[in-house]
Amino acid sequence: MPAPAATSDEELMLAYAAGDAAAFDALYARHKGSVYRYLLRQCRQGGVADELFQDVWMNLIRARASYAPTAKFTTWLYRLAHNRLIDHYRASAHLTLVSADDEAHEETVAALPGARSDQPQVRAENRELGERLRAAVAALPPAQREAFLLQQEGGLSLAEIADLTGVGTETVKSRLRYALAKLRGDLVDLDDGLRESLG
Amino acid sequence: MNETERDRRVDAAWSAASREEPPPSLDAAIRGAARRAVDAAPPPKRDKHWWYPLAAAATVAVLAVGIIQLTPPEQVAPTIVADMAVAPREANKDVARPLAPADTKIVEPSAAITAAAPPPATPSPPAQAPARRAQMAASGNLARERAEAPATERDTPKQSPAARRELAAQDKLASAKSDAAAANTAASPAAGVSGTAAPPRSEPFPAAAAPEPQREAYAEERKPTPNTPAGAAATRVARSAAATNAEEAQTKSKVAMAKVATTDEAKAKEASARSVEEWIKRIRDLKNEGRLDEAAKELAAFRNEYGERADALLPADLRQMKMQPAAK
Question: Which residues of chain B does A38 touch, with a Cβ-Cβ cutoff of 8 Å?
Answer without folding.
Answer: none
